[in-house]
Design a protein that fits this description.
Elements: E1 9-12, E2 18-21, H1 23-39, E3 48-52, H2 57-69, E4 72-76, H3 82-92, E5 96-99, H4 104-110, E6 119-122, E7 132-133, H5 134-137
Parallel strand pairs: 3-4, 3-5, 5-6, 6-7
Antiparallel strand pairs: 1-2
Amino acid sequence: GKKSKNPALWWVDGAGGEVKWSFEELGVLSRRVANVLSDACDLHQGDRVILILPRVPEWWLVNVACMRTGAILIPGTQQLTAKDILHRLQKSKAKCVITDDSVAPAVDSVGAECQSLKFKMLVSEGHREGWLNFKDLL
């Protein structure tokens, strides 16, 4: 059959930059992210992942990757305070949190109080001590 010309994901940022992924590209990328979650974060079916990102393509990759691995995705807004994040981490017993530079300090401020939290992943060009870098691992 004919391949659809419609993208699976078409994202445009505030400056007009675009990301367009076909269904095949989304599949390949989400499998790579699933491998990162399984290997680097040692996540298995039923493990919980808290994802706090703005509307960026990586949000969708992690979402689909969690479906592939069987991990339970717990989405959160960037408006969460450190207290909110602590509550969610403790109640969910999340093993991993994935966020960006704007939320990472709040996670760091409460992370020691969460026994189940084993992995912190940063979606950023930069690096942060104690955090895995999503883009490097991908």
